[in-house]
Design goal:
- This protein has a five-stranded mixed β-barrel with strand order 6-9-7-8-12.
- It is an alpha/beta fold.
- The N and C termini lie far apart (58 Å).
- It folds into two domains: 270 residues, Spore Coat Polysaccharide Biosynthesis Protein SpsA, Chain A (Alpha-Beta Complex), CATH 3.90.550.10; 76 residues, no CATH class.
- Strand 10 and strand 11 form a beta hairpin.
- It is built from eleven helices and 19 strands.
């Protein structure tokens, strides 16, 4: 049985976590949920070399230095880095990774993980991987369905079907559900058998590429040409820019998973979060007796349910406030109600057209 190749998708800029996360230093490279960056935490889920092969990271040119620095900090010397010439969403990125693994092992299996998610119960995730392996080896594409804790409207859902005899605990996928309105999310939770779509996948590389060819041949051929003419520079793999830029841009969900012939879901509750904004970090953080998350030098008097983060050399002090996000980073200070935390992206959009002097 071949080892699983961890494929770490490390694109994105995490605009909802400004000012700590920026386009040049996005959230996956920040220690937002512990001492290590989320990128290193993701790699840490697949360090067992009896089960996992060396990781393969996919990122853009602007992030290569961050990736290499984190790999060095984590003592990971055998990773390879695919440097995308431009962002084309997740399906082409995964295609490049699948092609690279097939060049090494025609029977390779890949575990695709975004670099900016958090899991507090990694053993539960590893158990779900093992549960899904028999179905994957038989040709299924597996996704991991997170047991929902509330009727979240910001995630897509997976509707599970019949259980699989050959893979106990794993179920066929009936359909994928777009991000629903609250009433529909509540109804799905009431019925049961619906899971959050975490965007994490386990599949044979050849099966993924066969499905991509069947459903999106233009994308498959562009990625194959880009990989065939790739330039190598040590651990870095540079796909041919012209060939890759000819590829359509699309997500794995739309390009492959929703139309694939056999898709299964492994339900799991690994304490997962996609850390989609400051409110999520308040939920994940250690709270004082008043519900405040305090990071750095913080003074909180008669204050409740706040997320208060002071960078090195700065102090945050609040009195008589509740439900706020207060973050300092360098010269920037963010103050926003927790329930409006997703609107931080408006600041990023404003700065893009009105750069500070």
């Amino acid at each position: 049985m071949s080892k699983i190749v961890p494929v770490i998708l490390s694109g994105g800029s995490g605009t909802r976590l400004w000012p700590v996360s920026t386009g040049t230093a996005p959230k996956q490279f920040q220690p937002l949920t512990g001492g290590d960056s989320m990128f290193l935490q993701t790699l840490g889920r697949a360090v067992d070399r009896t089960r996992f092969a060396a990781p393969l990271v996919v990122c853009g040119p602007a992030h290569v230095a961050h990736v290499e620095a984190d790999l060095a900090a984590g003592g990971i010397a055998d990773a390879r880095i695919i440097v995308e010439p431009a962002a084309r969403n997740t399906a082409p990125a995964i295609a490049l990774a699948a092609l690279a693994t097939l060049a090494d092992d025609p029977a390779s299996t890949i575990l695709v993980m975004p670099a900016d998610h958090v899991m507090t119960d990694v053993p539960a995730f590893l158990d779900a991987i093992e549960a899904a392996r028999p179905a994957v080896e038989a040709g299924a594409l597996a996704t991991f369905g997170i047991t929902p804790s509330h009727p979240e409207t910001g995630y897509g859902y997976i509707a599970a079907g019949d259980p699989l005899a050959e893979a106990p605990g794993v179920r066929a996928v009936r359909r994928f559900v777009e991000k629903p309105p609250r009433d529909k999310a509540e109804a799905m939770l009431a019925v049961g058998g619906h899971y959050w779509n975490a965007g994490i996948f386990l599949m044979r590389a050849d099966r993924f590429l066969a499905e991509l060819e069947r459903q999106h041949s233009a994308m498959a051929s562009s990625c194959a040409a880009a990989a065939a003419k790739a330039r190598r520079d040590g651990a870095r793999i540079h796909p041919d820019p012209d060939a890759f830029l000819a590829s359509p841009a699309d997500s794995i969900d739309y390009a492959v998973m929703e139309g694939a012939e056999r898709v299964v879901v492994a339900p799991v509750d690994p304490g997962w979060s996609d850390v989609g904004g400051w409110a999520a970090l308040h939920e994940l953080g250690d709270k004082d007796g008043s519900g405040n998350v305090r990071i750095g030098e913080v003074i909180a008097i008669d204050a409740t349910d706040n997320y208060l983060r002071a960078c090195e050399g700065k102090r945050v002090a609040v009195v008589g406030v509740s439900g706020l996000i207060v973050v300092t980073h360098g010269d920037d200070i963010l103050v926003i109600p927790r329930e409006r935390a997703q609107e931080v992206k408006a600041i990023v959009e404003y700065l893009a057209t009105n750069p500070p002097r």
